[in-house]
Write a structure and sequence with these properties.
With 419 residues, the protein is of the alpha/beta class. Among the domains are: 182 residues, P-loop containing nucleotide triphosphate hydrolases (Rossmann fold, 3-Layer(aba) Sandwich), CATH 3.40.50; 88 residues, Helicase, Ruva Protein, domain 3 (Orthogonal Bundle), CATH 1.10.8.60. 47% of the residues lie in helices and 8% in strands. The protein has a 5-stranded parallel sheet with strand order 2-3-6-1-7. Strands 4-5 form a two-stranded antiparallel ribbon. A hairpin with a 6-residue loop joins strand 4 and strand 5. The protein binds adenosine-5'-triphosphate (ATP) and magnesium ion (MG). Adenosine-5'-triphosphate binds next to helix 11.
Length: 419
């Protein structure tokens, strides 16, 4: 594909990077898209495998047909055959009606089997059969059904090892990887890590209305490039988001990176940042929680702004009536005794808003700039929560928050959280 076209493709799918290994992957995806060959995408966790099947489907002749993505690792072993291949009524307790299954539903289209390495062996046998004959048998049936489904699979499992250990059928592996796509790890992508930094720092700044995106000093750039990034782009994105929100200084130095255990791989401290996946998960959860909380605070502020523009800007509303709005299940309900005053110009959403309290104009002004204040409040709250959860064991709380103990001590002091 022409360079220009690849650039467009990257923009369309939000893919950042100029590394030639990444370009080769995208090129291969486009080349094989128009065939019906099975594709197996392999690569470490967090390298960006999930976008590739979409690209393949959207550039194939199956484009207008169904695209179904299934995470094989998340379907319980007891139901996976029925989910994939369907079942007939009465074939097991609870099978109250015939069920088509994904292979039936995706007929004419593409089925993305994510985490295919997690498929139970019995399901692997059924899958091999569809791949070889285009036929499958639903659970409880003996009637083979035809289907025309193109399979794209992905895995972060070392397949050779899984085969050696008898967890994955060798014949299925070769059948799946008629075309094999290997996604490069982040550490193999040279300067892409710096482009990704800029993207994620800018995205976070925009999302949380932080005035200045986080930048790397030249020394810090070297550290970021030399670090292993075992969780690849997913880990990298989380770190940039977290630092963008928590760092006081907008320029990141190697010392700041070290607080997050990001030190060059040659550094002897490397052993320290081999986070267990449980730690990574809890870190991710904390960040998700934080994002959710900030988003909802932002929503409050936006609603408040809207209210103020509609009702208050012209000073028609007594300051004491300024509402605080909370969204509940996509609807807004008024819960305070202070109804909104009548104004000449009917504001669009007034009829459906909830007023849950009142405040002074000063308080409202404070809320106007609430996003920035709230980031500090959020951080304080998260630290409090982590301390409570870990019964004041700062080491554990620091680990959960992804901070060094030293930083946590400093923040506890700054926020006056000492016992
Ligand atoms: N080149 C890229 N540019 C921008 N964002 C990317 C890029 N590659 C991956 N990402 C982002 O990184 C995150 C992880 O990617 P993805 O979910 O595809 O990983 P994965 O390879 O499927 O990992 P796993 O094997 O753990 O499921 C996603 O949020 C994705 O949008
Ligand atoms: Mg994935």
């Amino acid at each position: 594909m022409q360079q220009m076209d690849l650039r467009e493709l990257k923009m369309q799918y939000g893919i950042v990077g100029r590394d030639e290994k990444l370009d080769r992957v995208l090129d291969t995806a486009l080349q094989v898209a128009r065939t019906n060959l099975s594709v197996l995408i392999q690569g470490e966790s967090g390298v960006g495998k999930e976008v590739i099947p979409r690209i393949i489907h959207n550039h194939s002749l199956r484009k207008g047909r169904p695209y179904i993505a299934i995470n094989c690792g998340s379907i319980p072993e007891g139901t996976i055959d029925s989910e994939l291949f369907g079942h007939v009524k009465g074939s097991f307790t609870g099978a109250i009606a015939d069920h088509e299954g994904y292979f039936g539903a995706a007929n004419g289209g593409t089925l993305f089997l994510d985490e295919v390495g997690e498929l139970p062996l019995s399901t692997q046998v059924r899958l091999l059969r569809v791949l070889e004959t285009g036929e499958y048998v639903s659970v409880g049936s003996n009637q083979p059904k035809k289907t025309d489904v193109r399979i794209v699979a992905a895995t972060n499992v070392q397949m050779e090892q899984a085969i050696r250990e008898g967890r994955f059928r060798e014949d299925l592996y070769y059948r799946l990887c008629t075309i094999s796509i290997k996604m490069p790890a982040l550490r193999e992508r040279g300067d892409d890590v710096l482009l990704l930094w800029r993207k994620f720092a800018m995205d976070t700044a925009r999302e949380y209305q932080i005035p200045e995106p986080l930048r790397l000093s030249p020394e810090a750039e070297r550290v970021v490039k030399a670090y292993k990034w075992p969780g690849n782009i997913r880990q990298f994105k989380n770190v940039v988001e977290q630092m963008s929100i928590l760092s006081d200084d907008r320029l990141v130095t190697p010392e700041v990176l070290a607080e997050y255990d990001i030190v060059p791989s040659s550094d002897s401290r490397e052993v320290r940042y081999n986070r267990t996946s449980a730690e990574e998960q809890s870190l991710e959860q904390t960040l998700e929680l934080m994002k959710y909380a900030i988003a909802s605070l932002k929503q409050d502020v936006e609603m408040l702004k809207h209210q103020m523009n509609a009702n208050v800007a012209e000073s028609v509303v007594p300051a004491a009536s300024l509402p605080v709005v909370h969204q509940l299940d996509n609807s807004y309900a008024v819960t305070s005794a202070h109804a909104l005053p009548e104004v000449d110009e009917e504001p669009e959403e007034v009829a459906s808003v909830t007023v849950t309290g009142t405040g002074t104009r000063e308080a409202a002004d404070e809320r106007r700039t609430g996003e920035n204040l709230n980031i500090a409040q959020m951080e304080k709250r998260l630290i409090e929560k982590a301390l409570v959860k870990h019964r004041n064991r700062r080491k554990n709380a620091a680990a959960e928050l992804g901070l060094s103990e030293r930083t946590l001590y400093r923040k506890i002091k700054d926020y006056g959280l000492e016992e």
